[in-house]
Structure to design on (456 residues):
């Protein structure tokens, strides 16, 4: 009897273990079914790692920028356009970080838990981007590395995004892995780039001043071409004489903004950086995670270091996507939605199976503060840069010429249309090019004017 009991216990134990393992496998299969079905080894979707069987991707105008026909994946017939859209669509092998052929595989491949992968019926992924404008923006970047993006500051919809360097996926350079011209080629620099900001950072210092220095609008600042902090000297780009707060931004006066940064102190500068939303990364509704900024000012820093930090030099690093969100919030009265470029996914029956649900950006500032910055940026364009640089547009903006050791500066422009009937903001970064106004300002102007002319 004891032997029988022991055998029964053993049998029941084996059965219980078997049922437990089987249950775990079944749960795992259901919970990870999508991941398994969409892996690159699935011959229904891929051939040697190259995605073939997927739905259409269209731009805002309904133009197909990627589609499958007769078992082959097709893209633009123009090599330059393919290069311009590479960081948006992604390449066939998945090297490009954040390409939507990877991040939106479920929507593109018509996957459902009930029916699995449907190779007969494919969805259409509709973007907010204008493909022609993206290609035009890419041309404005060349021959420099960098990025340009234009966003509707009321909705968060990106209408333009270009990142350089890039390449034609059908003619990939043979020396791409060791040619410095292609350094960082797999990264979309809008999301993955980190740059010394230069004078565009004065918008952040100005934000801190408006929020914390009660008499900032009645103060005056003397610029003789340099400013001795007592613990280091700040060099200015000109001799501006005596300027007020708005004029200091207009002329991008280093001496004035170093004095403002010192008044604020390290803690308040840190608060301004955080308030502008430059310290954090977000995974937006495009499923892309941007790089968070770096800000290292502490109470132990010298006054010289604090002054240089306030004008966008020292150790500060800024991500272009975050800075675009910041200027969108300024333009929109203090708040804005996260910039994004995927709008909807529609199945063959016309039913919407995905709709973007953007969240508010991490930059939320007081409306009075935002409006003050907006007017100061408008004054900077009208009184210093010149409206003629922007054609028919009425622009608000700020440039940055970020100095680099033994290299040409990074050129920045961040700004937006003052006209609410044309609610677009732009950020442009051209690496190691030179003057912010000459290079980034010109590129941003060309793209914004093309958009304006297209709409009107």
């Amino acid at each position: 009897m004891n032997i029988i009991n022991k055998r029964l216990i053993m049998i029941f134990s084996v059965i219980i273990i078997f049922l437990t393992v089987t249950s775990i496998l079944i749960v795992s299969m259901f919970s990870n079914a999508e991941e398994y079905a969409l892996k690159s080894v699935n011959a229904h979707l891929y051939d040697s790692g190259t995605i073939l069987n997927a739905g259409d991707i269209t731009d805002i105008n309904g133009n197909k920028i990627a589609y499958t026909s007769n078992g082959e994946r097709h893209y633009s017939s123009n090599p330059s356009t393919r290069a311009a859209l590479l960081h948006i669509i992604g390449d066939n092998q998945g090297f490009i970080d954040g390409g939507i052929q990877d991040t939106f595989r479920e929507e593109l491949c018509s996957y459902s838990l009930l029916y699995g992968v449907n190779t007969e019926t494919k969805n259409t992924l509709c973007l907010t981007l204008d493909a022609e404008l993206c290609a035009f923006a890419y041309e404005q970047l060349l021959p420099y590395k960098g990025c340009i993006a234009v966003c509707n500051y009321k909705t968060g919809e990106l209408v333009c995004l270009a990142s350089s360097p890039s390449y034609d996926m059908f003619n990939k350079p043979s020396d791409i892995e060791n040619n410095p011209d292609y350094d960082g080629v797999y990264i979309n620099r809008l999301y993955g780039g980190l740059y010394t900001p230069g004078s565009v950072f004065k918008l952040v210092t100005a934000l801190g001043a408006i929020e914390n220095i009660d008499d900032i609008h009645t103060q005056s600042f003397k610029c003789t071409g340099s400013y001795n902090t007592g613990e280091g000297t700040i060099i200015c780009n000109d001799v501006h004489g005596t300027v007020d707060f708005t004029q200091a931004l207009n002329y991008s006066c280093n001496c004035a903004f170093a004095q403002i940064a010192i008044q604020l102190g390290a803690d308040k500068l840190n608060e301004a950086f955080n308030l502008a939303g430059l310290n954090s990364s977000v995974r937006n509704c495009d499923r892309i995670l941007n790089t968070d900024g770096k800000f290292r000012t502490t109470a132990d820093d010298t006054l010289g270091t604090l002054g240089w930090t306030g004008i966008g030099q020292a150790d500060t690093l800024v991500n272009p996507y975050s800075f675009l969100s910041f200027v969108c919030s300024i333009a929109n009265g203090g708040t804005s939605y996260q910039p994004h470029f995927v709008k909807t996914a529609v199945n063959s029956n016309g039913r919407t199976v995905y709709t973007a649900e953007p969240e508010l950006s991490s930059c939320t500032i007081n409306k009075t503060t935002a409006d003050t910055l907006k007017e100061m940026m408008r004054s900077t364009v009208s009184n210093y840069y010149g409206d003629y640089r922007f054609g028919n547009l009425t622009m608000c903006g700020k440039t940055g010429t970020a100095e680099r050791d033994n290299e040409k500066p990074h050129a920045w422009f961040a700004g937006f249309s003052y006209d609410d009937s044309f609610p677009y903001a732009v950020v442009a970064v051209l690496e190691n090019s030179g003057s912010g106004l000459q290079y980034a300002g010109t590129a941003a102007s060309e793209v914004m004017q093309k958009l304006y002319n297209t709409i009107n």
The radius of gyration is 26 Å. Residues 135-339+359-455 form a domain with the Beta-lactamase fold (CATH 3.40.710.10).
